[in-house]
Amino acid sequence: MFCLRAATDSAWATSAVTDLDAVLVDHAHCEMKAATNALSLVVRHSSDLGLVRALTEIAREELEHFQRVVDFLEARGLRLGSPPVDDYAAELRRAMNRLPATDLPLVVDRLLVGALIEARSCERFKLLIQVLPESCPADLRAFYEELFACEARHYRQYVDLALRAAGSLAALVEPRLQALAEAEAGIVRSLAERDARGTVHG
Ligand SMILES: [Fe+2]
Ligand SMILES: [Fe+2]
């Protein structure tokens, strides 16, 4: 899907849907991280107001997703708890730092990491939707379908923002995304070996 180089094992989704409560708790943390990641990019690259505006809009949408997942948690009597250690995002950023240097500004790599996280969560929402049990409430199913479309749009927005930030070096963005996607695929495979379950985004 999109730029992804490794498909999530279909066993991930069949395992995940056996505990939708756990999926929801994990999902809430992922939405909050998506919002804070977009805002941290705003803080780091505040001189570009076009970028600031686009990223705050993404953050606003992620925060709204977070609030809506919290609504589902509340309705089910679940607790949010502390966020789990996010090995996927940490390893993705380490992989980004290991890529060979180019003339591209660092913001491009950071935006492409955002794009990959969006692409992976989108892929996983699709897998989840395909195996949701009959007992899954209609509003939760509809929410996942809505999010699938929204995270796909975020993926495209992050890639477009990276192209824009690259300016005259835009031709370097696609190979950079491919290199990051290759690293991301390795991370997903290795995390799957360590823990078959994984999270909504990795
Ligand atoms: Fe989201
Ligand atoms: Fe998103």
Considering the chains and any ligands shown, give keywords for the structure.
202 residues, Ferritin, 7 helices, globular
Question: Could you explain the architecture of this structure?
Answer:
The protein has 202 residues and is mostly helical. It is 73% helix and 0% strand. It has one domain (12-80, 87-194): Ferritin, core subunit, four-helix bundle (Ferritin). It contains 7 helices and no strands. The protein is globular. It starts with 9 loop residues before the first helix and ends in an 8-residue tail after the last helix. The model has no long low-confidence stretch (mean pLDDT 94).
> What radius of gyration results from the CA coordinates?
17 Å
- What would you give as the CATH superfamily? Ferritin, core subunit, four-helix bundle
How many structural domains?
Answer: 1
The string of secondary-structure elements, in order, is: HHHHHHH
Number of strands: 0
* Alpha carbon gap, first and last residue: 14 Å
Helix content: over 70%
Question: Structural class, judged by helices and strands?
Answer: mainly alpha
**Poorly predicted ranges:** none
Q: Which molecules other than protein and nucleic acid are bound?
A: fe (ii) ion
